Amino acid sequence: MDIFGIPHQAFLGQIMLGVVNGAFYAVxxxxxxxxxxxxxxxxxxxxxxxxAGAFIAFLLGRHLGxxxxxxxxxxxxxVAGIGMVVERLLLRRIYGLDPIYGLLLTFGMVLVIEGGxxxxxxxxGYPYAAPDQLRGATNLGFMVMPNYRLVVIVSALFVCAVTxxxxxxxxxxxxxxxxxxxxxxxxxxxxxxxxxLTLTYGAxxxxxxxxxxxxxxxxxxxxxxxxxxxxxxxxxxxxxGLGSISGAVFTGLMLGVVEGLTKxxxxxxSTTIVFLVMALVxxxxxxxxxxxxES
Length: 295
What we know:
Blueprint: E1 2-3, E2 6-7, H1 8-39, H2 46-64, H3 68-89, H4 99-121, E3 137-139, E4 144-146, H5 147-169, H6 171-181, H7 183-188, H8 193-215, H9 227-240, H10 245-265, H11 273-284
Antiparallel strand pairs: 1-2, 3-4
Helix pairs in contact: 1-5, 1-8, 1-9, 1-10, 2-3, 2-4, 2-8, 2-9, 3-8, 5-6, 9-10, 9-11
């Protein structure tokens, strides 16, 4: 049976591959949305932390013999710690200023981080093997799906769900939302707002590092792997609504599928479809699909 003149196996298979890409987009967009929504920083360095996560996992395996599964926990914590130091030493100095300062500062961080990795490791990249337990593939009926890609989808959705629950359904999340709306009043009630902002930035870049570890067995680990994604992720966050947690996750998954289907019908347009959708959404709803309109 054909769908729009395309064999249904190829059509459904492309949707599944789109879901895999959407899983990466969702985790990266989630971290970016958290940072912008709470810290109010346009974190252009998000892709660099994604790349750093992949590289740290690679280096832990090469030099310390630490495998994939421990790295999936260790690397986000390490990168989150680095992010908290960056927030304390650099980003805290520009709070309250025009957002362009945050954009310029984090863009400078990208140049430094990527340049440092390029000098140390070159530009060609390194392979990172998936764990032995996840090699092979599963027959889904309409396609043979690599087991590792199925794990990527499940892991990404699980992390997104846990993050949403913490922010929307716990006391910590309530304090974060309060600090976003009324920082001085929240501080008056004994909440350490600066510490919350530091932890939030660390958590956001930790999510980027988690996505980097997930991506390492699929992509070659190289210094430019983050810069290739960050513009798309920014567009996804804008479409979902700046600072919207659910919007970032839903839009990331949706546009991964849309991008995958575009490759079936018009492969040349797959690299621009995200930006076309962004333009259309902003024309109809400037605040994004899940964003709140300002009065």
